[in-house]
Amino acid sequence: MRSPMNRRGFMALGAGLAAVPALSACGAFSGYGSDPDTLVIHSQMGGNAPGSPTFRAVVNQFRKENPDITVKNLINGDDLGQVYETSRLARAEADVVMVNLYDKTLSWTEVGATVPVGGYLDGWGLRERVIPKAVTEWTDTEGRLRAFPYIGTNWPIAFNHALLERAGVDAPPTTSDELVAAARKLRGKGITPFTVGGNDWTGQKLLAQIIQTFLTPAEARHLYREGDFSGSRGAQEGIAYFVDLRDAGVFADKAQGLTSDAMTTQFNTGHAAMQSAMSSALASVPDNVVKTTSVGGFPLTDGAAQKKPTILRTYTVSGFWISPNGTKKLKTVERFIRFMYRPEVVDRFVTEGGRDMSVVTDALSTDFPLVAKAQQLNDSVGQVVLPDQYIPAAAAQPLIQATSTAFTPGTSARTIRTALESAYRSA
User: Fold this and answer.
1) Residue 25 reports pLDDT greater than 70
2) Residue 32's pLDDT band (boundaries 50, 70, 90)?
3) Are 194 and 250 in contact (CB under 8 A)?
């Protein structure tokens, strides 16, 4: 599969940069790239998203402890990947980029947009601070560690017991029969059973989780690298299982048009009994709903490859990437990375920000009860593969479009397989 941003792509895009104006410090380009006493950080840690206030606080602490360093923060949202690539073509990129491993970023180290950091992880004495599985997830097939792992996530199912009990459901479902029966009872009371953003990444992740019901982790990794959903018996069975649940009324009405915002609103306002929620979403559940909510795994059906209801878990939500500009001021970058890996700094993201970490910590998100519960699920649930690092970057967005097709009532399993495979042909 071709990377969407190979070296030729960088050169072609660079030809048009003369017409691109310089952007402000809260956008993209910066005029501080060549200043050895200035550290430019580019991240998505803006607004009030879980962990963002903590990030701003610890950066300010770093400033106070290092008055000889000027720290500039660049903030972008979902467009960070494109903004960074454009700034890199202008040789005006930030020194450190804090972003997840997904879509565009998968190819950055391969094409030289960022540099491998394995040598720095060892040279700076930080390897023992990182959860070993996080190192594995951030390492590409050529053995290059793409970035310093930092934030991870648990991704369980949240169950609102108050709504379940109102519908006469005594406990969260753990099997497909129980899930379908619960959905029927909930609908009888006018309650949405399982809300999901079927028109964005949340639906794509849930669909991937359900498809893996009949797949081993190795089979799942192969499937999401190659996209042969028709050639895999396990994938065929998983898609058929999804269709059975959809047609039984398990998912929200018009799920194919819902987004993650709509999903969380439905759950947080007590209008839906279940949702698939990563830790950042769990951290935003209001107190009145938290009190009646538990977390667990997605129900299984007969013949499943897993032994326990499943969750997703990943260590690739955010890491610190070093750019070519950053290599020109490594002592400054090292001071910042070492600071961010201090135990007391890492713990603040857990206790204050409600985040799961890819760095070793014993802290629990006690001020975010659902996040803490998810952190303690351990062996009570099974775990399936988050497909993000295996899906070819060019197929990522087309797969979300295919997900909307999957959640559309009446769409057959065969049509869903075709839509998913078409997303890979675009790559």
Assistant:
1) no
2) low
3) yes
Question: How confident is residue 154, by pLDDT bands cut at 50, 70 and 90?
Answer: very high
Helix, strand or coil for residue 275? strand
CATH number 3.40.190.10 is the correct assignment for the domain at 157-276+392-425: yes
Q: Specify the pairing of strand 192-195 against strand 310-322.
A: unpaired
pLDDT for residue 366: 92
Q: What is the pLDDT of residue 348?
A: 97
Residue 247, token pair as written in the block? 């047609």
Q: Please calculate the CA angle 57-61-63 and round it to the nearest 5 degrees.
A: 115
Classify the C-alpha dihedral 122-145-105-365 as positive or negative.
negative
Determine contact, residues 337/148, Cβ cutoff 8 Å. Answer: yes
Residue reference for tokens 């610190």:
320
If you count them, how many residues does the chain have?
427
Residue 34: pLDDT band (50, 70, 90) is: low
State the residue for tokens 């459901």. 169
Instruction: Count other C-beta atoms under 10 Å from residue 246's C-beta.
Output: 23
Which CATH fold would you assign to the domain 7-151+316-366? D-Maltodextrin-Binding Protein; domain 2 (3.40.190)
DSSP 93-133: --SEEEE-SSGGGGGHHHHTSSB--HHHHHHTT-GGGB-HH
Q: Identical fold at 7-151+316-366 and 157-276+392-425?
A: yes
Strands, E assignment, 161-232: 192-195
Are 312 and 326 contacting, i.e. CB atoms less than 8 angstroms apart?
Answer: no
Place of tokens 């001021």: 329
Report the alpha-carbon distance of residue 164 to residue 167 in Å, rounded. 5
Q: What is the pLDDT of residues 41-63, one digit of tens each?
A: 999 998 887 899 999 999 999 99
Domain ranges of the chain: 7-151+316-366, 157-276+392-425
Task: Collapse the DSSP code of 252 into the 3-class scheme (helix H, G, I; strand E, B; otherwise coil) and give the result.
Answer: coil
d(CA 126, CA 47): 29
Paired strand residues for 43: 75, 98
**Contact, 72 vs 360, CB < 8 A?**
no
Tokens 């972003």 belong to: 99
Q: What is the mean pLDDT of residues 217-230?
A: 96
